[in-house]
From TrEMBL:
High-level lineage: Bacteria, Bacillati, Actinomycetota, Actinomycetes, Streptosporangiales
Domain Aminoglycoside phosphotransferase, residue spans: 49-259
Keyword Transferase included in the entry's annotation: yes
InterPro entries: ACAD10_11_N, AGP_Transferase, Aminoglycoside_PTrfase, Kinase-like_dom_sf
Protein name: Phosphotransferase family protein
Record-linked Pfam families: APH (PF01636)
Keywords: Transferase
Taxonomic superkingdom: Bacteria
GO molecular function: transferase activity
Length: 322
């Protein structure tokens, strides 16, 4: 369905929340990849009250991560657990009026672009607090009752990403060496919790008061809580800044806030393992994205440039080895 054709069925969906006569204004496409479209718009009630909203829509025949219905359930469960999350206004499957799986949520104002979060003078006062806030938010995420999101699955992340690299069949000796080290030095298993799966600078909405919302739950699963903390510390998400946590804070700030907020005690050796796993995972994702370009699946300079970053991640992995 073309964008201009979404207005009427979207109004029909939102009538339950905003009443008959609701109008859709300013529907425009924003960010989104091959699997999902993101649009901003306003729902205007019959009384003239405007509600800024976001629509996420699954494109036909393509799926990445979990379904949007799962993402909507996660955001609702996260909000109930105290995680700053956009309110879910409506959600539906492919049999809905929109003809595709969708979720409508409130639009949260703030900054999401990492380089601005790290450099904008308007965020200078809150920037030193962000690592601690991340710790508090992650502790809340890991408190989400597993029973509230029964559709989440648990998989061995190291085996899963090794299988992805094997399936591509492209030789990367340094990456393979690091994966072998990770396999031989795996830390003891911890109690499984809800893991966001992509918690990092770039998936947070930040304002002068701090973190306002956590976005992009499509990679959520059950697993080790340190996976989220390690991923946040991956060098790629520092965007050229020195501080190891998202480019804005220290390990101590993150860990102390996480534990104080009720998160499990952090084993720093295990955290280092998960950070290293995160670098390897990002390297494999870069290989995947470059392959999309090289095989002609999606010609893109951006995807091709990600292929160059594989070597950067391999260098980081080699430097992290003890």
């Amino acid at each position: 369905m073309e964008l201009e054709q979404l207005a009427d069925p979207l109004a029909e969906v939102l009538a339950e929340r905003y009443g008959a006569g609701v109008q859709i204004r300013g529907l425009r496409r924003g960010s989104g990849g091959a699997s999902r479209v993101t649009c901003g718009f306003e729902a205007v009630t019959a009384a003239g009250e405007a509600h800024p909203l976001i629509l996420r829509l699954t494109t036909q025949g393509v799926m990445a991560g979990g379904p949007l219905s799962q993402e909507a359930a996660l955001m609702r469960a996260a909000g109930a657990a105290g995680v700053p999350s956009p309110e879910v206004i409506a959600a539906g499957d492919a049999s809905s009026e929109l003809g595709a799986e969708f979720v409508v949520m409130e639009r949260v104002e703030g900054e999401t672009i990492p380089r601005r979060i790290l450099r904008d003078p308007a965020l200078a006062d809150v920037r030193p607090l962000l690592a601690g806030q991340c710790g508090e938010v992650l502790a809340a995420i890991h408190r989400i009752p597993v029973a509230s999101v029964p559709q989440l699955e648990q998989t061995d992340q190291l085996e899963a990403w090794q299988a992805v690299l094997d399936a591509i069949g492209e030789p990367h000796p340094a990456l393979e060496f690091a994966l072998r080290w990770l396999t031989r030095n795996r830390p003891p298993a911890r109690r499984s919790v809800v893991v966001h799966g992509d918690f990092r600078n770039g998936n947070l909405i930040v304002g002068p008061d701090g973190i306002r919302a956590v976005l992009d739950w499509e990679l959520a699963h059950l697993g080790d809580p340190l996976e989220d903390l390690g991923w946040l510390c991956v060098k790629a998400w520092r965007f050229g800044a020195e501080p190891p946590v998202g480019g804005f804070g220290t390990y101590d700030q993150l860990i102390e806030a996480y534990e104080k907020a009720g998160g499990a005690q952090v084993d720093r050796v295990a955290l280092r393992w998960w950070e290293m796993f995160g670098v390897a995972r990002w390297a494999i994702i870069c290989v995947m994205q470059a392959q999309r370009h090289l095989t002609g699946g999606e010609r893109s300079v951006e995807l091709a440039a990600l292929g160059r970053r594989v070597a950067e991640n391999e260098w980081d992995l080699l430097r992290m080895l003890p």
